[in-house]
Amino acid sequence: MSKNGRVYLVGAGPGDLGLVTLRAKECIENADVIVYDHLANPETLSWARDDAEIVYAGKEAGGSQLSQQDINALLIGKAREGKQVVRLKGGDPFVFGRGAEEAQAIADAGIPFEIVPGITSAIAGPAYAGIPMTHRELNSHVTFFTGHEDPAKAESAIDYAALAKLGGTQVMLMGVERLGSITNEMLKQGVRSDLPVALVRSATTGKQETLTGSLSDIAQKAVASDFKAPAVAVFGEVVGLRDSLNWYEKRPLLGKRIVVTRTRKQASVLSNKLRALGAHVIELPTIRIEPPSNLREFAELVQDAHEYDWIVFTSANGVEAFFDIFFKLYDDAREIGGARIAAIGPATAQRVKDFHLHVDLQPDDFVAESVVREFKKQGSIENLRLLLVRAEKARDALPKGLSGIGAIVDEAFAYRTVPETRDTSGAGRQLTQDGADLITFTSSSTVENFLALGLPWPQGMRIASIGPITSKTVRDHGLNVDVEARRHDIDGLVQAVRELFAEKG
User: Fold this and answer.
1) Is the pLDDT assigned to residue 2 strictly greater than 80?
2) How far, CA to CA in Å, does 354 sit from each of 49, 359, 377?
3) Pairing with 456, which of 62, 82, 302, 364 sits 20 to 30 Å away (CA)?
4) Where are the extended beta strands (E) located within 152-230?
5) Residues 308, 386: contact at Cβ < 8 Å?
6) 360 an active-site residue?
7) Quick one: DSSP state of residue 488?
8) pLDDT at residue 62 above 60?
9) Lowest-pLDDT range of 66-80, 328-342, 412-426
10) Catalytic residue among 16, 32, 37, 482
């Protein structure tokens, strides 16, 4: 019989990826099986191993997902197969999430387990809405309760009369659909009608919205504005502090749904910058970086790199692939010899500098013509040997341009881009169902591979391009470029996106 595995009950936090704990990320990265909930941000699944088994066990109103007994049996069964099982739950697993029941079932089955706490939306939601839980002048205690029951039923687990006497800050999870009957019960128990109340939905994400009112009118306001779950309700004087402490909802891209099409590994840089501005990011990688078709030929060129006058890197991916091979062949960076280094773009240059090497030439623009022009400024490169480290099937304008001014150019194909067909986070479904305001393209291959997915183009979705080559590919496919980065890198693209939405108001 195989040795038992272990179950990790992991809190995935309230939605913002930045609020997931380091321990939670480590568990996801090492898991054999991940069973995740509806409220767990599916983008956390991008940290999983490619061979991890991923099971959706979310329970949504009216859905026909796994029952709690099925989930318990699944966790125990997988652990008995000797697997490391992560049960990924939104917020904190022990705050109104049935984590305690799952832990009890696992313990009763004799399976080792670990609890990884997460930041609950009961704290994070109000904080992102500018509402502190406590304030020395306003209150000294906080109460959490669930609205996931009918307050009018005779055997209600919530003592509304006691809540009314208790006062302080009170936070309710999972009760927006029953808000009318809950506020009526509170009023009936003597809570004053003008008590400030706030509802925070999709807290800590780019879709966050906050609705404020009083105990007497918040339910009507929620109905009038079609304010739906998932939402947290805050009752108490601290709600009044929102006017001066609201910070998150003032971000320039709040509520904008933006698609990022870079590789899974690279997407986070662009996504994090957009999220920091308040955007709701849909990561839909359309390309994957793989080793070149002829790895032996590439390795031989890397081995002989010291024989060249210049090594020209066209991307950060090329730099990584080059030095991955280089340091398998050599244990001393000086083996690169007297070759000077050219890097196209600040990200490429930074990746070279990460290996503690100097960049001798870096053109302002990231197009072949600018590189050739920059080399001309160096004086004659007649008969100088250049090793051009690049992707397979890249444009031939650069090698032609450098050969045209007398250089002897050898191309080292460091990697190839292939279509990304996996969609572990369900981003394609999310885009199809909910649409998007903008899609970002960072290379021609991201354009071609996105269109090859055959997803319906959401109404009104605009296009942001990183530079002229990518823009040309967009137009070649009959689409319009709404904004092109003036500086052709990630920071330039983010700035262009920000200006586009500023113009549109």
Assistant:
1) no
2) 26, 11, 26
3) 62
4) 169-173, 196-201, 209-214
5) yes
6) no
7) S
8) no
9) 412-426
10) 37
Neighbours of 246 (CB within 10 A): 14
Give Cβ neighbours of residue 389 (< 8 Å, ≥ 6 apart).
Answer: 311, 312, 313, 314, 318, 319, 321, 322, 412, 414
Measured in residues, the chain has a length of: 505
User: Residue 366: its pLDDT value, please?
Assistant: 65
Distance separating alpha carbons of residues 201 and 218, to the nearest angstrom: 14
Catalytic residue, chosen from 174, 273, 437, 482, is: 174
Per the omega criterion (within 30 degrees of 0), is the bond before 230 cis? yes
* Distances in whole angstroms, Cα of residue 121 to Cα of each of 126, 129, 208, 209: 8, 11, 12, 14
Q: What is the CA radius of gyration of the chain?
A: 28
Rounded CA-CA distance 148/98 in Å is 12
In 286-324, which positions are buried (b, 16+ CB within 10 angstroms) versus exposed (e)?
Answer: bbbbeebeeeeebbebbeebeebbbbbbbbbbbbbbbbe
Give residue for tokens 């050898």: 410
HEC string of 70-94 equals HHHHHHHHHHHCCCEEEEEECECCC
Give 218-224's long-range contacts (Cβ < 8 A, gap of 24+): 218/179, 218/183, 219/179, 219/180, 219/183, 219/184, 222/176, 222/179, 223/180
Q: Report the C-alpha gap between 197 and 174 in whole angstroms.
A: 15
Buried b (16+ CB within 10 A) or exposed e, 449-475: bbbeeeeeebeebbbbbbbebbbebbe
Q: Judge whether 186 counts as a catalytic residue.
A: no
Q: HSE-up of 4 (CA within 13 Å, CB side)?
A: 12
Domains along the chain with CATH numbers = 6-119 (3.40.1010.10), 123-249 (3.30.950.10), 257-286+420-503 (3.40.50.10090), 291-417 (3.40.50.10090)
Active site residue 37: yes
| Distance separating alpha carbons of residues 36 and 408, to the nearest angstrom | 55
Residue 85: count of CB within 10 angstroms of its CB = 28
Query: What pLDDT is recorded for position 156?
Result: 67
Q: To which H or E segment does residue 428 belong?
A: helix 427-434
This model's pTM is above 0.85: no
Q: Give whole-number Cα distances, 113 to 5, 76, 226, in Å.
A: 9, 10, 41
Q: Is the pLDDT of residue 192 over 50?
A: yes
Going by pLDDT thresholds of 50, 70 and 90, the confidence category of residue 1 is very low
Selecting among 25, 59, 221, 353, the annotated active-site residue is 59
The letter for the amino acid at 118 is G
pLDDT at 504: 66
Instruction: Quote the mean pLDDT of the chain.
Output: 90
